[in-house]
Design brief:
Blueprint: H1 2-19, H2 22-39, H3 49-57, H4 63-76, E1 86-91, H5 93-99, H6 106-117, E2 123-126, H7 138-143, H8 150-157, H9 162-172, E3 175-182, E4 198-202, E5 211-212, E6 214-216, H10 220-225, E7 228-231, E8 235-237, E9 240-245, E10 247-250, E11 253-256, H11 258-267, E12 272-277, E13 280-286, E14 289-292, E15 298-300, E16 313-315, H12 316-320, E17 333-338, E18 346-348, E19 354-356, H13 357-370, H14 378-398, H15 405-412, H16 416-439, H17 445-511
Parallel strand pairs: 1-16, 1-17, 2-3, 2-17, 3-7, 4-12, 5-10
Antiparallel strand pairs: 3-6, 8-9, 9-15, 10-11, 12-13, 13-14, 18-19
Helix pairs in contact: 2-14, 2-17, 6-9, 11-13, 14-17, 16-17
Length: 515
């Protein structure tokens, strides 16, 4: 039995030696390619159950490298704003010091909206939600007065409620209220909110988009007064905002994001258009604008540096005091949000900058106006996989062959193959960067580099080890040659000394008769 296993083991070793590492290289090529697909499963084919299990076990096989690469693309080539359609009215620290701490009484916020609306903007989006009644409203104050202050309480109840004052301002201006989507119930959450209708063209993409069951929205009286409602959620990956959904699911219906709802109000459109097929959302449209999206209804953001967008920020204090040029707001999309320390949500962009959450919404609107979209369509993933497989199989077929130019080059210049490999991978990154700049396509050069390097390493490591052994043997031989020569010289000298006495004796015998 042992002889049988030894025989088969010898045959397998002989077969592997004849294959010259090809089986291992093929296993690595197909295995890593499958892991790459699992890390970003194409939406045009059903997702098997084992994909989720593998993704949970190995969550960041290629995703982190891919994200870091795309971040580097943006850092070396950030978007330069071509237009300035957005003005951000920031409730900053100067405003809070001048007007009062947050949250403000709703009548004070109504005054800010009235001051902005007087400048005739196209739409006003509030990155603010108010799910509870204003506790500073006159009727709330009256409820907390002692019984002895009945006259004062009656006078307070005769005053208009702050929420009603704010509702009138929302109704008079082209306003959009924001809301926060949640996966779990919390205080004052609801399961639905008022939103504009969405006209669906094609398949229902509800199971493809990001879905939520609960929402933290403003009071019903405020929702009824505003001209639009939208969700403010952003997608975070390792704490960085790289893309933002244009449509999301709330319960069993689609709802828009704040930028798309503001564009709907600005264009006077009755509804948003969503174009989808079996693989997911293809585009989201409003009026004559169509925004290409990922299958999940989101877009990759090409960020501009915050240094190039500071001109669009104005302080709410200056708006309330009437210090700004009235023409600055005309025909603009105005976003109102908090930027004061301790009252704002800060987000990290791929550029490594920490910006207010309202800046993310503004960048989406600018991206739509500039028409500068970053795309990673499903076909691109298949094209990357096909390229990796073709080049990988060529490496498996050609590199181990003997008597080729590559084999002779590796023999003549062992370290030169490493330089060639680095040059090819640098060319790969530069080509992908060129495609990013000119076409806005996100090509995953990181996966190409990792997989093909691993396949090439299956042959280079044994080859370099073999060359190192040959070099060691040649060096040892070079060291042995002088030793052989020395031994030959010693033997020659020994023979010379051995023959010397006999020659002397022969010479002496010949001289005797002559003497």
């Amino acid at each position: 039995m042992k002889r049988f296993f030894d025989l088969w083991r010898a045959r397998i070793r002989k077969l592997l030696k004849a294959c010259q590492g090809r089986p291992v290289a093929l296993i690595i090529l197909f295995g890593l390619s499958l892991l790459n697909l699992i890390s970003e499963w194409p939406s045009d084919i059903p997702r098997p159950s084992f994909v989720d299990r593998v993704d949970e076990t190995l969550p960041d096989t290629f995703k982190s490298a891919r994200q870091l690469l795309f971040d580097q693309f943006q850092r070396h080539y950030p978007r330069m704003p071509a237009t300035q359609p957005v003005i951000i009215v920031e409730i900053d620290e100067e405003t809070l010091a001048s007007v009062g701490q947050w949250p403000w009484p709703r009548d004070r916020l109504a005054g800010l909206i009235d001051a902005i609306a007087a400048q005739q903007p196209l739409a006003i989006g509030l990155d603010i939600y108010m799910p509870e009644p204003d506790q500073t409203s006159p009727e709330r104050v009256a409820d907390n007065l002692p019984p002895s202050a009945k006259t004062l309480a009656a006078a307070l109840r005769a005053l208009p409620m702050h929420d009603e004052i704010l509702a009138q301002s929302l109704r008079a201006a082209p306003t959009v209220l924001g809301a926060a989507a949640l996966d779990h119930p919390a205080l004052a959450t609801r399961t639905s909110m008022r939103s504009a209708p969405i006209v669906l063209h094609g398949s229902d993409p509800l199971d493809r988009v990001r879905r939520f069951e609960y929402v933290l929205a403003s009071l019903p009286v405020l929702q009824a007064a505003a001209h639009g409602q939208a969700l403010l959620s952003v997608a975070l990956e390792q704490g960085v905002v790289r893309h933002l959904p244009l449509v999301m699911g709330l319960g069993d219906k689609l709802v828009p994001s704040l930028p798309m709802e503001m564009l709907r109000i600005a264009t006077g459109s009755p509804a948003l258009d969503v174009y989808a097929d079996h693989s997911g959302v293809q585009a989201v449209g409003v009026a004559d604008v169509q925004v290409p999206t990922q299958p999940g209804g989101d877009i990759w953001l090409h960020f501009a540096s915050i240094r190039s967008t500071l001109a669009r920020y104005v302080s709410a204090r200056d708006v309330l005091q009437g210090k700004l040029d009235p023409q600055r707001f005309r025909d603009k999309l105005v976003l109102v949000g908090l930027t004061g320390a301790g009252v704002t949500d800060m987000r990290t962009t791929p550029l490594g900058e920490l910006v207010p959450g309202i800046e993310i919404q503004a960048q989406v609107i600018e991206t739509i106006f500039d028409g500068r979209f970053l795309l990673r369509p499903t076909w691109l993933k298949w094209a990357e996989t096909g390229f990796i497989m073709v080049v990988g199989l060529l490496i498996v077929w050609y590199v181990p062959r003997k008597n080729t130019r590559l084999a002779m080059f590796m023999t003549a210049v062992p370290k030169g193959i490493a330089l060639v490999g680095v040059s090819l991978h640098l060319l790969n990154v530069l080509c992908c960067f060129y495609i990013f700049i000119h076409f806005g396509l996100l090509v995953d050069a990181a996966a190409i580099f990792i997989i093909l390097s691993a396949v090439m390493g299956c042959f280079l490591s044994p080859s370099l080890l073999h060359l190192q052994r040959l070099a060691t043997a040649e060096a040892a031989l070079a060291r042995e040659v002088p030793l052989v020569q020395v031994q030959a010289q010693i033997q020659a000298q020994a023979r010379a000394h051995a023959s010397a006495p006999s020659e002397k004796n022969e010479g002496g015998a010949g001289e005797a008769p002559g003497s």
